[in-house]
Amino acid sequence: MIGFVVHYQHQRNNTSKSVFVRQMMNDFDSIETKIHKVEQDIRKNHETIREIKKILRRIAGGDKSGINKLKHLFDREDHEHIQKDKEVVENVLKHELDSVQHAPRAEVLLPDGICPAFKTQAKSDIMIRKVYDTLAFDNIDGGVWKQGWNITYDPKQWDNTEKLQVFVVPHTHNDPGWIKTFVNYYQQQTRSIFENMVEQLELKKEMKLIYAEMSFFSLWWDEISPEKRKRVKTLIEKGQLEIVTGGWVMNDEANAHYFAIIDQLIEGHLWLNGTLGVKPQASWSIDPFGLSPTMAYILKKMGFKDMLIQRVHYSIKKHLAKSKELEFMWRQEWDNTGRTDIFCHMMPFYSYDIPHTCGPDPKVCCQFDFRRLPGLRYSCPWKIAPVPISEDNVASRAETLLDQYRKKAQLYRQNILFVPLGDDFRYLNIFSLLS
């Protein structure tokens, strides 16, 4: 087998590029045709020689010495013939290769729009693909934090000059497709959530809420009055209502084709920009079952500043949490310059609901999910129910909650802690927002 390596350089002139490529392909086709013809001639000659041997053996009529002489003669002739064939092939190849190598060199290589990756190894502190090879992916019971360990902290690490800043942000995750139909989800749950959102955000000027799925939001927008639309725009302008990601849905990343991902992002962003003049800056991916670097790349190309992810395997979360690397710049594996870097916040615990976001102990966090108060529809699986907050218990309850915040803060490098407060189709009624 003969391998050909032809080096080209890049040329901007597309016409010259095409002509040169066609000429090169014709040259290679010519070489291939001639090689094929030589091979056919060689096979034909060998077949002729074998046939002559058979005929001579019959003529010899059993004379072993004569047969041996003929065998010696034809073996020698075969060798000489093969040697000549080899010389013919080498001469043909030398002539054709010389003509190719001395042809005028054009700057060509790849079709327009193709970006070659000459170096495939990114320069990064952590190569997550290699981390997978080091983890056992076992299921060790970590205590109250099942997938982690018992977190401790020094209370003296915070003082009047070094405070822990906690940002508690309500959110609601509204699946366009899950158990109910899209229309039923909207009519039975989502519409009321939007109505309550407007009322409560206007009453509580310090309160904020983040929302992602534009398919529901656009449906509601078409129904509300011009006066309410103006109120919603005011909440967005003030930063009380933040649209995150802004896709038509919160897309799957593990199985979806990149075209489908881009398509639904375009759908949501066209609506947002054309209707509200909004361009989301942060991505919010709390429920997709698996995270793709393709999504991070697309978000970066779209101009996003940062992103949040949740459903990562607990072994990966534990590994990154131990070295306080749950916040990082996500870089593509083929990127050697950092141009694809995007800031990423990874949520540390099992889920994005309230029992798993205030800190490592879900039985404690669940006590602050007041939708689970005794007598209501939901309860805490850990058998410790929330209690209403009063003047008598507010101090002790605050200390209990603060303890969870401080433990969670040990998993990050900064004294700034993000605590999402929400769940699927959350804040369906006024009570849940008030609480």
Structure, briefly:
The protein is α/β, with parallel strands linked by helices. The chain has twelve helices and eight strands.
General description of the model:
With 435 residues, the protein is of the alpha/beta class. The protein folds into 2 domains: 88 residues; 307 residues, Glycoside hydrolase 38, N terminal domain (7-stranded beta/alpha barrel). Helix content is 46%, strand content 9%. It contains 12 helices and 8 strands. A 4-stranded mixed sheet has the order 4-5-7-6, covered by helices on one side. A two-stranded parallel sheet has the order 1-8. The protein has a two-stranded parallel sheet with strand order 2-3. Helix 8 links the parallel strand 4 and strand 5. Helix 4 crosses helix 5. The N terminus is likely disordered. One of its GO terms (cellular component) is Golgi membrane. InterPro entries: Glyco_hydro/deAcase_b/a-brl (IPR011330), Glyco_hydro_38_N (IPR000602), Glyco_hydro_38_N_sf (IPR027291), Glycosyl_Hydrlase_38 (IPR050843). Keywords: Glycosidase, Hydrolase.
List the helices and strands and how they pair.
Layout (H helix, E strand, L loop, with lengths): L13 H47 L3 H38 L26 H7 L30 E9 L8 H22 L5 E3 L2 H10 L2 H13 L2 E3 L14 H18 L6 E4 L7 H9 L4 E4 L4 H9 L4 E4 L11 E5 L15 H4 L28 H16 L6 E9 L5 H5 L1
Parallel strand pairs: 1-8, 2-3, 4-5, 5-7
Antiparallel strand pairs: 6-7
Helix pairs in contact: 1-2, 4-5
Main sheet: which strands, in order across?
4-5-7-6
Listing every helix as H and every strand as E from the N terminus to the C terminus, the arrangement reads HHHEHEHHEHEHEHEEHHEH
Number of domains: 2
Basic shape: elongated
Organism: Acanthosepion pharaonis (Pharaoh cuttlefish)
Keywords: Glycosidase, Hydrolase
InterPro entries: Glyco_hydro/deAcase_b/a-brl, Glyco_hydro_38_N, Glyco_hydro_38_N_sf, Glycosyl_Hydrlase_38
EC number: 3.2.1.114
